[in-house]
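Q: What residues go here?
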C-alpha cells in the first residue's frame, strides 16, 4: 500500500534528546472523506489542493493514494481499514491528523479510521465551502452539513478534535493557513509534553514550600524527573581545572552577554558550573531543568547560576530557579507552542494604581530574547545577606513592549492531576526604575486573574513568552492531554 509523503519537511524547532534546539519535520496523516452519491471529482481536487499546500508550507503527509482507494478517499469500511493500516505503519512519525471533507463525507469512515489507527494525536476537521453558483448535482458538496455529522461521530467515539476558525473553508484561504499553523503548534506541544524529561538540580530552598510538586503525578502524564544533588554538581565542577571545556564555556558566556565589572574568577566559576550542567543535561536527554539557585550555591561556590540558566533557556532548554520543576514545565510548554525562549518570573509588584498592570521581576535568569539589553551583573537582594561578591552571575535587563503569553502548571496532589492557567497580554514601555530582570505587563482583567491564582493555590512564579499562544496551550493541554485548564479572558469562562 502506497502513501503520499511530501519530500519537504517543515522547519519546526523543538527540543530534542539532550535538550538542543533542532529542526524537525511535521507529518500529518490525512483522511479525505467521500460519500458515494456526491461527485467523486471533488475528492481528487481536494487531494491535489492539499499536496500543493503542504509542499508550500513544508509539511509531510501520510495519505492514501488513488491506487489504494477510489481517488484516495475514505468512503467504505474497507477504505477505513486500509487507511488505518497505513497510519499504524507510520505511527512513529505522525504528529497529527487532518480530516478533509470535500463533500458531505462518510461520517463512519472517518471515525472508524481513527478508532482503528489508535494514533492518539490531535485531529483537525476541515470542510470545503459550496459555491452558490455550483449547487447542482455535478459540483454540490454539502460539506457544511457533513462536518456536523463527522464531529458528532467523533464525539460519540470520544475522539477529541479541533475545529477551523470558519465552519467551512477552502485550503487556499488565508484563515486556513493560520488554522494549520496553530494546529501544528498544538501537535508539537502535545508530542513534546507527553514525553518530556526534566532535571531537578539540588533541593528546593527551605523557605519555598510554594514550589513543591508531585513526581508521581507528572509521571502519570508521561513526564519524568531526574534528580541530582547540588554537592555532586559542585564537586564535579571543582575538578575541572585545566579542562578545555571550561575555556570554551567561558568564551560562550562572554559572547552571550556583556559583563561589565564582573571579576574574571567569577566568570570562570560560572563556566565550570555550566560545563557540569551541560553534561548532566546531555547524559540524561533532558528537555528542561530546575536548579537550586540559592543560598547554598552562593555560600559554597561563590557565584550565581543565573547566566548559565539564561543561556539554556535561550537555546530552548528552559531552566527554572528555586527547583521549580512545574515552573520549568510551564516554560517548556510555552517554548514548544511558540518556538521562542521562555522566562520564569514573579508576579511581583503592582504598577501604581493601574489595576490591569503589574511588574514582572526576577533577579534574574531570563533568556536574552525576553530582555535584549541583558547583561551579567550581581544580585543586590541576595547580596544583602550573602555578600554581593558571591552573587555575580545574576543578570539584569528590561523587556521591551511586545506580545505576552503567560502560563502556569502545577500538580494537584490530592486530585492526582495537572492543572494550569494560561492567558495573553502585552509588555509595555512604561517607566520602571529598579534592578534585575524586569518588565511591566498589561493583562486585561488582571485583578480577576490574581483572585483566580490565589483562590486556587497557584504559585507566585509564572512562565512568560513573547508570543500569543494561549489558545494553542489551552487546547493542547486541556483537550488532548487531559489537564485541568483555565484560559483567562476566554469568553467561555465567564
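A:
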Amino acid at each position: 500500500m502506497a502513501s503520499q509523503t511530501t519530500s519537504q519537511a517543515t522547519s519546526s524547532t523543538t527540543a530534542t534528546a539532550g535538550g538542543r534546539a533542532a529542526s524537525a519535520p511535521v507529518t500529518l496523516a490525512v483522511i479525505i472523506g467521500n460519500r458515494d452519491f456526491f461527485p467523486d471529482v471533488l475528492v481528487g481536487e481536494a487531494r491535489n489542493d492539499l499536496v500543493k499546500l503542504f509542499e508550500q508550507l513544508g509539511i509531510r503527509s501520510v495519505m492514501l493514494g488513488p491506487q489504494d482507494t477510489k481517488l484516495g478517499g475514505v468512503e467504505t469500511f474497507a477504505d477505513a481499514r486500509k487507511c488505518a493500516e497505513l497510519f499504524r505503519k507510520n505511527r512513529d512519525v505522525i504528529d497529527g491528523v487532518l480530516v478533509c471533507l470535500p463533500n458531505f463525507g462518510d461520517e463512519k469512515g472517518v471515525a472508524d479510521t481513527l478508532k482503528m489507527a489508535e494514533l492518539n494525536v490531535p485531529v483537525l476537521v476541515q470542510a470545503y465551502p459550496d459555491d452558490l453558483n455550483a449547487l447542482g448535482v455535478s459540483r454540490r458538496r454539502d460539506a457544511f452539513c457533513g462536518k456536523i455529522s463527522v464531529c458528532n461521530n467523533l464525539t460519540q467515539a470520544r475522539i477529541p478534535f479541533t475545529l477551523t476558525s470558519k465552519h467551512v473553508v477552502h485550503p487556499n484561504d488565508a484563515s486556513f493557513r493560520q488554522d494549520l499553523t496553530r494546529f501544528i503548534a498544538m501537535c508539537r506541544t502535545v508530542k513534546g509534553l507527553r514525553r518530556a524529561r526534566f532535571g531537578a538540580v539540588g533541593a528546593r530552598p527551605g523557605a519555598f514550600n510554594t514550589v513543591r510538586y508531585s513526581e508521581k503525578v507528572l509521571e502519570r502524564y508521561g513526564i519524568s524527573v531526574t534528580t541530582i544533588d547540588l554537592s555532586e554538581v559542585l564537586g564535579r565542577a571543582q575538578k575541572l581545572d585545566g579542562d578545555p571545556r571550561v575555556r570554551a564555556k567561558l568564551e560562550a558566556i562572554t559572547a552571550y552577554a556583556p559583563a561589565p565589572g564582573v571579576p574574571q574568577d567569577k566568570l570562570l566559576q560560572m563556566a565550570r558550573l555550566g560545563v557540569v550542567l551541560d553534561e548532566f543535561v546531555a547524559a540524561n536527554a533532558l528537555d528542561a531543568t530546575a536548579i537550586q539557585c540559592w543560598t547554598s550555591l552562593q555560600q559554597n561556590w561563590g557565584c550565581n547560576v543565573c547566566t548559565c540558566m539564561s543561556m539554556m533557556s535561550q537555546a530552548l532548554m528552559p531552566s527554572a530557579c528555586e527547583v521549580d520543576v512545574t515552573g520549568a514545565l510551564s516554560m517548556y510548554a510555552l517554548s514548544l507552542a511558540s518556538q521562542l525562549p521562555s522566562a520564569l518570573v514573579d508576579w511581583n509588584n503592582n504598577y501604581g494604581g493601574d489595576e490591569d498592570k503589574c511588574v514582572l521581576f526576577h533577579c534574574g535568569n531570563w533568556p536574552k530574547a525576553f530582555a535584549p539589553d541583558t547583561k551579567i551583573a550581581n544580585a543586590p537582594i541576595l547580596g544583602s545577606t550573602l555578600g554581593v561578591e558571591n552573587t555575580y552571575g545574576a543578570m539584569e535587563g528590561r523587556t521591551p513592549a511586545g506580545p505576552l503569553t503567560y502560563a502556569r502548571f502545577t500538580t494537584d496532589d490530592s486530585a492526582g492531576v495537572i492543572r494550569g492557567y494560561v492567558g495573553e497580554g502585552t509588555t509595555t514601555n512604561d517607566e520602571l526604575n529598579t534592578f534585575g530582570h524586569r518588565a511591566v505587563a498589561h493583562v486585561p482583567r488582571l485583578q480577576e486573574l490574581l483572585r483566580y491564582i490565589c483562590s486556587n493555590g497557584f504559585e507566585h512564579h509564572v512562565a512568560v513568552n513573547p508570543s500569543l499562544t494561549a489558545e494553542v496551550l489551552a487546547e493542547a493541554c486541556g483537550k488532548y492531554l487531559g489537564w485541568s485548564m483555565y484560559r483567562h479572558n476566554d469568553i467561555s469562562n465567564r
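A: Context that may help when evaluating the design: Residues 66 and 228 are 55 Å apart (CA to CA). Residues 5-22 have pLDDT under 50 and may be disordered.
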